């Protein structure tokens, strides 16, 4: 009853014409930002912050605009993943794996519709989850200490080998490379500089957004230069967009499971949308088995990561609103906005400022319907933006990448790093070494090290501390199986596959 | 039509001209932290109460725990008169521990502090420790039995608070007290409420929400007197431990500005500190009054850095 009354309050705020307009505007800008390679939710939201202050928006209005951009970017990220095989943002990288193959098989429209519906399902269910479970789920964070986090991160790395590459050794090498890059910067415990060469710019380590833009967007530009940019960026023709009802219905259980997994991944502080899409893809891949055809362009392979990353986006708002602990890079930026607007997120926010919380939740529900409309029937508008000749699109990608990075970090040094990572990405891809584990290493390596060292401090260097709780043991076992299982599955299932590929 | 267009152009020209001379406040961290708050709040109030004619532009320059901005001001912008930079106790602590790559406090001019976040020692609501004395008694028996989480790195200000208390209570082996530096105060609380650490050391503003929700118990606040609005929280002093540690929030300006300009900025900061707008912002964010500007503040910084240096040397954080 309480929730119904609160929600009524929320909708009374959200349905004011001005708030509604901001939500629609945010959805539109967000989808474009998400669709453009390199620009993701966190830089999209970051770019719009000055605008909200310039417009003099109040707390509710500013939050509605920025979270609509956030959700919009989560939807939009899939468009370039599917059509260009470049993730529009980092959580959309898993969508490339099946989305692009399906588009190449001549079904780009179906891929966009399935992923659009999946985004809607994930985002809506997780917004409802946020509404119902926020006070309760904020307690989950209390179950995770250093040992549990370490096991969780290990799980992410171990299961990666089976997904990102056909060769586990190459995937492991890429992960290690990423973790090594993550070691650059101040030692988290002693505060001493490591691997910085005395350069103050490297003291805070390498921003993973810089690495992502370099490895994905800039290296893509290099590949185009190599091919003399003859063929269009969008060598996939999008015909009439129809809704493949049967196929969407066949993914209903995938969507239900992935919503839960994605939401939980989002709730965990620091895990966020990338882990959500990653875990959902991996678990659905293992449920479907080799017969599921994951990686060849199947509906389930598109639905799972899209549900996962959008559900995680909603989940990440839970710790941000209830504990003031951001669950992802974007919620960290949103947290910054809240603090600037003089709102202190925390367990009391729900009682102190119900207008903010419930206005936000109601707006998110509305935004989801707006986004469904924009991303399914009107998806062609956004595809047009990508359907530009490479001579225009690629310089555009480069420009937006550089402007985006500069707007986020304000450092010319990071622009040089983007180029360095672009070259690195080009070399790695030439050697058939996957770049996704590198990103994961940069993203999680530092956190994983910190958790391990904290665990050692707390236990006086006793390694058994890592296995001291049921949660951590479960995660370790899952990690072990995740690393081992794909090797056996691959060996067993290789023979029947040969006729297919021949 | 033409008239309107021309008026717009003039307006745009004025706007551009105006921002070009606007004061700039550097927040040496990403948006969202204490330094960002300092810049944005002071910048906003400066404009609202008419101390500056154009809105203050806030620039975020994260890097090296504030070191990048410090170096940039010292090396590249040492005579800019419209530049202010957010600082806090963390700035002073890092200068004292030589964590800014050889930079020293006398390479800039410290302008003033206009508020302070009182240090707190916090335990989970179901902790066995009821008073600071309980906790310190357990630490005296076995220094490694009580682990702390805080938002600063090991050797940072949050860590030093615990060590100061331990020293004041006569514990000799302070180096075996366990401390993990996590990502901010909220994370530190989460670890403590979850039972992974036994105590949390941080600032009042970081724990306000958790006090209200009943998740934590504050054993002591590290101020001279009890903090208004939190009158039921005892100070460490009244529990017999003479430790005062507050995280002041303030500003510095480049070394090369004239004395007149320095004084003008100090007066402006004083005006912000005395405004009702700032009083509201402090109340909303758990800050306690702490207004020192100009040469008094310079003296305070010098003493503060000397104190931190002595303590850091004693516990082995620096040589």
UniProtKB/TrEMBL annotation, chain A:
Chain ranges of the DUF112 domain: 20-440
Domain of life the protein comes from: Bacteria
Membrane-traversing stretches: 7-33, 45-71, 111-134, 146-164, 171-186, 206-225, 260-282, 323-344, 356-376, 415-443, 463-489
Alphabetical list of Pfam families matching this protein: TctA
Database matches in InterPro entries: DUF112_TM
This protein's UniProt keywords: Membrane, Transmembrane, Transmembrane helix
Designated name of the protein: Tripartite tricarboxylate transporter TctA
Organism: Jannaschia pagri
Automatic annotation (TrEMBL), chain B:
Signal sequence, renumbered to the chain: 1-22
Superkingdom of this protein's organism: Bacteria
Protein keywords: Signal
Official protein name in the record: C4-dicarboxylate ABC transporter substrate-binding protein
Family, per entry: Belongs to the UPF0065 (bug) family.
